[in-house]
Structures are given as C-alpha cells and as structure tokens.
Design a protein that fits this description.
Layout (H helix, E strand, L loop, with lengths): L1 H21 L8 H13 L6 E12 L2 E12 L3 E8 L2 E8 L6 E5 L5 E3 L14 H9 L4 E11 L2 E10 L12 H4 L2 E6 L5 E8 L9 E13 L2 E11 L2 E13 L12
Antiparallel strand pairs: 1-2, 1-13, 2-3, 3-4, 4-5, 5-6, 7-8, 8-9, 9-10, 10-11, 11-12, 12-13
Length: 264
C-alpha cells in the first residue's frame, strides 16, 4: 500500500511538472518580416518613386538657434536633397547613391559647395522618410537584417532591427568595415510597427574610424496620400537636438527629375 502511494505521488508530480518541462520558448520574430510589416503599415501597399516634404525648420548649432523653412526631397532609388532657408542663410545638402561613383555635397550661408566624404554617404540619404529607407533595404539582397530584440526606446516599447550592407570587395586594412558604415538601426513601435526612430553613424571627413551617433525621431504620424507620414521629425547628433522639422505639406510621386540631385 505504501509503495502504491509512492508511485501515485510520483506520477502526480510528473503530471504537474509536465507543462513546465514541455514548455518551449517562442522563436524570435523574423527581422525581415518585421520590416515588411512596418513598410506595409507605412505605405499600405502603394508604390513610392519620390517624395517631397516641406514645412518649418529649427536648426540648433551651439549658441546658434535658427528658424525658417525646409524642403526635403528623395527618390526611392537612393537620392535625397534638403534645402533649409533659415534666418542665418540658406543651407543645402545633396546625396546621390545612384551616381557612379556615389556623390554628395553640402553648402552653408556663403553658398560655397563642399564635397561630402564617401563614408558619410552610405547610411541613408532619405533619413527623413522611413518608408523609403525600409523599402530600399528590402528590395536589395545585399542588405542583411538582424532582430536585436524587444526594447524600450525613448520611453516606448519597440522592436529593434539592425540592417547593414554586405561588402562586395575585401575591406582595406585599418578601415572600418563596409557593414559598419552602412548600418542603420530601426526602432519599430511594438503595437503599430511604425518607426519611432532610426540610428546610424556619421564620421569626420578625414577619419572614418570615429563614430558620431545620429538619431532620427519620428512622431505625429498622419495619413497623407494613402501613406502614414511622420509630420514631426527630429535629428540628433551626439544626443543633442540639431534639427527640428514640422511638416506642413507632403507630395507623393510628383516625378522629381534626377538632375535635382546632381549638384547644389
């Protein structure tokens, strides 16, 4: 009888413990699937060839605090241009990854053009429009996406996905890897999967090994031309706000000529 009771007790314990032993950890979500769902939330299945954002701008650089207007244009193929008309003067930037070789330049209030270093062209020309940034990576097999994890970023629950481009030639000795120079990290709202932020690095023109972290924050998403468009965009450098944009007008697929991105 005692032996029978022991057998019954052991069997009961095994039954109670079976769910714990049999429980399996869910596999992490696919990074590509998350990006595909994010693009679907942003674009709703629409094709994007070009976009134009215009509105008010505030630029902060040290003690300078400028206000004015901004026009930002981008092609889905990998070109972008920003024109800021500020109280201190006009500032322009252009980047064209479709050119051979890729080219970029910037100018300040004096109007003199300055060529951008090649290593600063590789992150994302259309940093201000996440649908293009995600779409370009999903359509190019040389990019690799990695799911970093579920996190809290700027007080929001997000899914963190990191994407970088694979090099097609050996990395020069002593230089940062191509994968590092092209790395872009997406922080997707865990509920809507709309991007709340992207991060990447820029570098001094003469030192590609020195990382200067850049963060782009997106907010105030609104429906425009069938897309979800962030109407509030902030750009931070080294965790300090340097550009604050409030979109007032959005234009989709207007047929921006490629020559717009040839020069300043």
């Amino acid at each position: 009888m005692r032996r029978h009771s022991s057998i019954v007790l052991v069997s009961l314990v095994l039954v109670l413990l079976r769910p714990a032993f049999g429980q399996q950890t869910s596999p992490p979500p696919s990074a590509v699937a998350l990006l595909q769902s994010s693009l679907a939330a942003l674009a709703g299945g629409q094709s994007i060839s070009d976009v134009t954002l215009s509105g008010s701008a505030r630029r902060i650089a040290g003690s300078d605090d400028d206000f004015g207007t901004a026009t930002l244009r981008a092609l889905a193929t990998g070109a972008a241009r920003s024109d800021l008309n500020l109280s201190s003067g006009v500032r322009k930037e252009v980047c064209d990854l479709t050119a051979s070789p890729p080219s970029g330049a910037w100018s300040g209030p004096d109007g003199s053009p300055h060529a951008a270093a090649y290593h600063n062209l590789l992150a994302e020309p259309a940093w201000f429009f996440p649908a293009i940034a995600i779409g370009r990576r999903l359509s190019n097999s040389s990019y690799t996406a990695t799911y970093v994890g579920h996190e809290t970023h700027n007080g929001q629950a997000v899914e963190h996905v990191s994407v970088s481009q694979t090099a097609t030639s050996p990395n020069p000795p002593g230089a940062p890897t191509f994968e590092h120079l092209t790395q872009l990290d997406f922080f997707l709202d865990s509920t809507t999967l709309l991007p709340t932020a992207i991060t990447f690095n820029i570098h001094p023109d003469n030192n590609s090994l020195l990382d200067l972290p850049v963060e782009i924050r997106f907010g105030d998403y609104r429906s425009a031309s069938g897309l979800q468009v962030p109407y509030h965009i902030q750009k931070l450098l080294n965790n300090s706000l340097i550009l604050d944009l409030q979109v007032q007008k959005f234009t989709l697929n207007s047929g921006i000529p490629a020559s717009t991105f040839d020069s300043l």
